[in-house]
Every structure is written in C-alpha cells, then in structure tokens.
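Chain A, query sequence.
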Amino acid sequence: MNMKKQIVAAVMAAAVVLSAASCGTKTDYDVKLDKKEIVLPCTVDGLGEGYRLDASNTFQIGGSNNGASLMKGDDVYGRVVTDETRIEDIDGKSNIHSLVIFGGEEGNDVKFSVNGVELGATAEEVKKELGVPDVSSDASLKYRKGKTTVVFLLTEGVVTGISVADSGYERK
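Chain A, predicted structure.
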C-alpha cells in the first residue's frame, strides 16, 4: 500500500474514532468481508480465516499506538484501530473497533461491502444505495446511522476504500 493511502487511512480512522457519541456493539449497516458478516468491535479472528494484524506498522489515534495493518498472507488489506494503548499489546485478541479496507492494490482481491456497495463502486452507486451522505466531498462520502460511521473513500468518483467504525466504542 502506498504512503498516500496509509496517511489517508490514518486520517480517516482518526476522524471516525473522534466522532464517537454513543455506546454499543452491533453494526448498524450490513458489513461483509469476504461475504462474512462483520460486527464491531471484534477480534481479528472475527474477520475470517487468514487475517492477521501487523503491529510493526502502527499509527497513533488519541495519543495511543493503537492502529495496525490488517494483513492476509503477505498482502496489506487495510488498517484497523484497536483498544490497545501500546504497540507490543496489539495481537489477534485485540478488539478492533474501526476498520479501513482498500481495494485496487495488486494482489488484493478482498471482497468488502457495506449494504451491498463494494470497493470499485461509483459515488453515484453509493448514493443510490445509501441515500444522501451526512458529509460529502470529492474525496469521501460519510454516513452515520446509530452508533456506526461509514466513510467511502473516493478517487476520481470511484470507491477505493471503505472505513467502518463503531463510533460509540468506549475503551475499557
């Protein structure tokens, strides 16, 4: 994953985490990774077989090193935000409460969708399925329902990344 996408992922994850307002664990959208329903927060095991976290490439949210790369094999599929406060504590048992998945990377055949909208969809397809976004720009479409925030990252009007966060998550 190139550096620009990593920076965008970190910024989007921070924006999603900082929008927290309520508590809960059930995702308010139909979120699927490789056709498996995802409910946040979850552990990496909850994402499906073959996924792992790589804590050697962390980033900070709220002053803590609680972000890591989401890997499948040797491929980086995205970034996650966990409830850990130290790099050395991030592992497969860490609670993931924010997930950013990128498409279009060579070798990355991830199937990630929100309410049936997949990576590679157009901005118009997103709006047709989910309606008018709460916040929009040329770079993203942001939706909020209940305790879940979804951001579709756009490049030239095409979804190249999707961020999903339990925006009501409170670190224990």
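Residues 6-25 have pLDDT under 50 and may be disordered. The chain is about 15% helix and 40% strand.
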